[in-house]
Amino acid sequence: MATYVCLIKWTQQGIENIKDSPKRLSDAKKAFKKEGANLKAFYMTMGPYDMVSIAEAPDDATLARVLLRLGSSGNLSTTTLRAFGESEYREIISSI
């Protein structure tokens, strides 16, 4: 499975309903599983992003589908980075 780093910000609606955030996280984990993806790690952060998560999905389209569904709730916005693990990194570099 491909690995992704998701940088997440609460929207105004999301911060106004902050007390619902833990339930939304639980629902997000279920949404990932339903699509055959996995929310491996989650962190609340300080700085320009409110949260960071590490996710795995079979492909880019699957992750995009999950994040678009979550984003359509109006509570968050995401910036996603495709992450290559060490073995993938070594394979990519060795092919140059």
Would you tell me the structural class of the helices and strands?
Answer: alpha+beta
Give the overall shape: globular
Mind telling me the CATH superfamily name? Lrp/AsnC effector binding domain/regulation of amino acid metabolism (RAM) domain
Mean pLDDT: 97
**In what order do the strands lie side by side in the largest sheet?**
2-3-1-4
Summarize the structure.
Helices cover 42% and strands 32% of the residues.
What descriptors fit this protein?
alpha+beta; 96 residues; 42% helix; 4-stranded antiparallel beta sheet; 4 helices; Alpha-Beta Plaits
List the helices and strands and how they pair.
Blueprint: E1 2-10, H1 12-16, H2 21-34, E2 38-44, E3 51-57, H3 60-71, E4 76-83, H4 86-94
Antiparallel strand pairs: 1-3, 1-4, 2-3
Provide a descriptive summary of the structure in words.
The structure is a single chain. It contains 4 helices and 4 strands; from the N terminus they run βααββαβα. The longest helix is centred in the N-terminal third of the chain and has 14 residues, at 21-34. The chain is 42% helix and 32% strand. With 96 residues, it is an alpha+beta fold. It has one domain (2-94): Alpha-Beta Plaits, CATH 3.30.70. It has a 4-stranded antiparallel sheet with strand order 2-3-1-4. The model has no long low-confidence stretch (mean pLDDT 97). The protein has helices spanning 12-16, 21-34, 60-71, 86-94; strands at residues 2-10, 38-44, 51-57, 76-83.
